[in-house]
Amino acid sequence: MSESREIPPIPERPDARDRPRIGVDEWVAQVEDRRADERGLGGALRRGWRSTPSGLQFLAVVAIAATLPLYLSGGDLFSYGIFTLLYAVLALGLNIVVGFAGLLDLGYIAFYGFGAYFYSLLASDHYGIHWQAEAAIPVVVLGGALLGLVLGIPSRRLLGDYLAIVTLFFGQAFVVFVNSANPDVAGKGLTGGPNGLPDVDPLNFFGYKLTTKNHYFYFLLGSFIVIVAAFHFLNHSRTGRALRALREDPLAAETIAVPVNRLKLMAFSFGAATAAFCGCVFAALQTGSFPGNFDVSLLITIYAVVILGGIGSIAGVVIGAIVINVTFEFLSPANDHPELKRWLFYATILLLLTKLPWRRAAIVLAATVAVGFAVHEIVEAVAPSWAAGSPIDAGSLGDAIRSWVIIPVGHGQFAQFAYVALIAAILILTRLRGWWRTLALPPTLYLVAIVWENVLVEQPSVTRLILFGVLLIVLMNARPQGLLGTPRVEIV
Amino acid sequence: MNDGSHLLELRGVSKSFGGLRVVDDLYLHVDEGEIVSLIGPNGAGKTTVFNLITGIYAPDAGEILLDGRDVGGLPPHTIAKQGIARTFQTLRLFLNMSVRENVMAATYGRTKATVIESVLRLPRARREERETRRLAEEKLGFFGQRLVGYRWDQPAYSLSYANRRRLEIARAMATEPRILLLDEPAAGMNPVETHEITELIGQLRDDGGYTILVIEHDMHVVEGISNRVVALDHGVKIAQGSFEEVATDSRVVEAYLGIRGAEEAEEAEQAEEVE
Predict the structure, then answer these.
(1) Nearest chain B CA: its distance from A294 CA (Å)
(2) Which residues of A touch B119 (CB under 8 A)?
(3) B213: distance to nearest CA of chain A, Å?
(4) Cβ distance B197 to B189 under 8 Å?
(5) Which of A126, A163, A431, B58 has the fewest CB atoms found within 10 Å of its own CB?
(6) Which of A425, A146, A99 is nearest to A272 (CA)?
(7) How far apart are CA A382 and CA A484, in angstroms?
(8) What is the pLDDT of residues A260-312, one digit of tens each?
(9) pTM for this structure?
(10) Does A4 touch chain B (CB under 8 A)?
(11) Inter-chain touch B171–A251, beta carbons under 8 Å
């Protein structure tokens, strides 16, 4: 029946440029447009990167990451290095469920919490059990996978919104369980209630204890490599294809012999196992598990990582984790490098300007600088107290803009008005086109700088959420499919 | 098991939705190596018959035998694994996967590498992956140059309508089925493409050795390829036999044209005979 047929000769890619291009479809044209983009130095770099095998690309990224402990202090390594890796691994697990299998699982964080609490029970003074990590981690991961299966069995027939509701309920029920239910087991509360489970052992492999931040960083980096490789191979195997097929069209997947329900369960328990693993590391890292660690805000962050990076793309999810965590930590009030913050803020604005053709960008930049100095001069001459302030925590950059940006002293309301004015200016900007927009850009950018220096630097804890939201909106507008995602297309 | 009879056989199959009997006591069989066409006006229950055979619906009564074994009511993926593949009237491709992956996905039921083998790239997983790739390219090669080369890596949504129809057939072929069910393969195609698909279905039987049950409205296609034709109306089989027999059957003409239409057609025929 399957006598081997010859594959017909493979046609050349139609790439004629000087004759009518019959038979060239949209996709080919897009590929060629992308090629045409690749001119100049940036293009050469992009080409070189793209022609590198993905394994080497990955190794290069890992090699760079491995040098982080050399120049990051303990606290920075903790918030930037370790948490980026933790978010990346968590998001990779979620990506299996949401990205590959297309199941909207809003109870994901409960598995993370389950892992943390389970590990805490197996390795703390709470019940006086002190398991080694090489025993505790496999048990917890297996337990997570089983819990995923248990949640999956009743919900596998649910689709879309209904699945989301059931899993969200599960996630909330978990928090209530550990926080309020706290059942009495062997004479004491199982989960410690609001106090959580403190004094958890650090990870301890065969007597070798992970004690420093560096240890955890390298342990997580190693796990990250293993998990990325595993999920990459999984994605390009029969199972990965079947998962994606069921995401695209479950009925059609059934008719090509894919057991859809079984694969949904598999995706669920893979995601749960990954989350449980992260939970172990997290509990050991902060030597405790507390109910507040596993609430909806973390769920939103992890979803933001997956969506921003590009649903279904492993590399995208990793980049999403870097972007989200680094921005979030960088905007955090605990960030003790205010001058670095300032550099990054202005660098980001310059980066956004590169979206414009370079001549126009140069004009806008020059105009912004000029507007600033002019406004500052005028204000200083007319009402000196309105320009008397200087940037907070000024370093070299702060000093440089001292006579550019206006910072009033003793005019408390100014900051709020500037803030509202900025929102209005940005709204107006979105309605303008062409040269009008270019014309409106310099004053708006200057206003951005004023708001940053007067408001945002002073109140980081409130404004970081706003900035974070703005960043997400801008990014998702520019690339709805996420940074490295491919756009989902439906034919109507 | 097989008592030398039919590859696929429906015995007294019925299916109702609420009070509506969509398929009523249907007897139908397809033998190895033949092409059977299922015709009938819109709403006659043809696609429901396909959905019953492929397990999307379970029959209310009757047996569906593949090689003598009852497959009625089994889950679709089990039935697919036992050798029944289909295409859909409204295309159901995996649009955001590449052309080649669409076809490779269809070998799921016949490959055996476990998740652990796949993740660790153990020899069996690697060998199956190579074979699957080769098989997908071979199946896509069935359509000449239309779906080979640079098209392998194109996402399925970027294909033209006719190519999407071809890709769906290639996907069904890749499950290496005992019997292939094609639901209106020529729908929406222009006359040239229709002619081509007719030839192709013939080739599938003659060169590929496939057994085919096909739903088709285009009578030229039906005439060109069918070994036998079965006509349905309101879920009841009203005629079967060669194309000529069925096409001239008064009940079939009536089903398509209505009673008055049938009478007029008969009168016209008699008038012709008189002349």
Answers:
(1) 30
(2) 230, 233-234, 237
(3) 16
(4) yes
(5) A431
(6) A146
(7) 51
(8) 999 999 999 999 999 999 999 999 999 999 998 998 889 989 998 998 888 88
(9) 0.83
(10) yes
(11) no
State pLDDT tens for residues A176-234: 999 888 888 888 888 888 888 988 999 989 888 888 888 999 999 999 999 999 999 99
- What CA–CA distance (Å, rounded) separates A350 from B58? 63
When scoring A33, A35, A225, A238 by the number of chain B Cβ atoms within 10 A, the one with the most, hence best to mutate, is A238
Contacts of B28 (CB under 8 A, 6+ apart): B8, B9, B10, B13, B36, B38, B49, B230, B237
With CB atoms and an 8 Å threshold, state whether A245 touches B81: no
Q: Residue A66: what residue type?
A: A
Cα separation, B180 vs B7, in Å, equals 12
Q: Look at A489 and B138 and tell me if their CB atoms are within 8 Å.
A: no
Identity of the residue in B104, B141, B154 whose CB atom sits nearest the CB atom of A27: B154
- pLDDT value at position A11? 62
**Encoding tokens for residue B93?**
């491709």
Which residue is it, tokens 């590990």? A119
pLDDT digits (tens, 9 = 90+) for B145-185: 888 888 888 889 888 888 999 999 999 999 999 999 999 99
Residue A399 near residue A343 (C-beta atoms within 8 A): no
Mean pLDDT throughout A86-92? 96
Residues A295 and A281: their CA atoms lie apart, in Å, by 18
- CB count, 10 Å around CB of A340? 13
A253 touches chain B (CB under 8 A): yes
Å between B266 CA and nearest CA of chain A: 43
| Least confident among A319-333, A364-378, B15-29, B104-118 | A319-333
CB–CB of B41/B217 below 8 Å?
no
Which residues, 6+ apart, have CB-to-CB distance to B10 below 8 Å?
B26, B27, B28, B29, B49, B52, B53, B62, B63, B64, B65
Separation in Å, CA of A271 to nearest CA in chain B: 14
CA distance A155 to A163: 6
CA distance B40 to B215: 9
Kindly report the number of other CB atoms within 10 A of residue A400's CB atom: 11
| Alpha carbon A29 to its chain's center | 31
**Burial level of B39, CB count in 10 A (0-12/13-18/19+)?**
buried
Q: How far apart are the first and last CA of chain A?
A: 37
Specify the pairing of strand A208-209 against strand A204-205.
antiparallel
Reading the block at residue A189, the tokens are 């509360």
Of 1.10.3470, 2.40.160, 3.30.1490, 3.40.50, the CATH number of A54-330 is 1.10.3470
Q: Is A46 at the interface with chain B, CB within 8 A?
A: no
CB within 8 Å: A245 and B120: no
A223 contacts A83 by C-beta, under 8 angstroms: no
Residues 454-473 of chain A with CB under 8 A from chain B are none
Phi, psi values for residue B238, rounded to 5° = -110, -15
Cβ-defined contact of A244 to B111 (cutoff 8 Å) = no
Q: Closest partner residue to A251 among B92, B95, B121, by Cβ?
A: B92
Alpha helices in chain B (DSSP H): 46-53, 76-81, 99-105, 115-120, 123-140, 161-174, 191-206, 219-225, 243-248, 250-274
**At a CB cut-off of 8 Å and minimum separation 6, what does A194 contact?**
A179, A291
Residues of B in contact with A10 (CB under 8 A): 145, 148-149
Domain with CATH 1.10.3470 in chain A: 54-330
8 A C-beta contact, residue A329 and residue A335: yes
Residue found under tokens 């756009």: A487
Judged by a CB distance cut-off of 8 A, whether residue A162 touches chain B is no
d(CA A196, CA B50): 57
- Vertex A308: Cα angle to A349 and A279 (nearest 5): 120
The interface pTM score, or ipTM, of the predicted complex is 0.89
Tallying the residues shown for chain A, one arrives at 492
